[in-house]
Amino acid sequence: MFGRKSTNTSFSTGSTTLVSKSTEVIGDIHFSGNLMVEGRVKGNIRVSEEHDGQARIMETGFVEGDIRVPTLVINGTINGDVYSDKHIELAAKAVINGNVHYALIEVVKGAQVNGNLVFTDPAAERPAATLLESTQVTAEENTTVYSADVQLVNTPK
Q1: Kind and range of the H or E element at 112?
Q2: What pTM value is reported for the model?
Q3: Is residue 40 a contact partner of residue 27, using CB atoms and an 8 Å limit?
Q4: Closest residue by Cα to residue 103 from 117, 89, 87
């Protein structure tokens, strides 16, 4: 009707994984399909390679780690960075203590982001090298070992 926002709340195809209110997961979660978090997760959450997925962090949900999911709805608390290359919705009780990397974002009144909002253009071509987060380079010379951490970043053209 007039003045009422229509939202698509359907899940993506595939199975649904639930972390219930009374559950705490310690470790990373790799999933395909749908993920609903009502409990606690101490670890990173990401969609398995070559799969599309959607995650929902419910009002009672708490995640301590990074989240990398194409479509994401948050209404709980996240202590870590959030990466979404399709759509992210921050509901009224969402609290994010970290940076939000997004292509399309909806923020409802009351949501909190204690970090930066970083726009990521999904149409921009990403060089293959940016898929590596970091690597270590080591060189040996006369039994002395030199090492350096190398950070590859995507710079604007």
Answers
A1: strand 112-113
A2: 0.72
A3: no
A4: 87
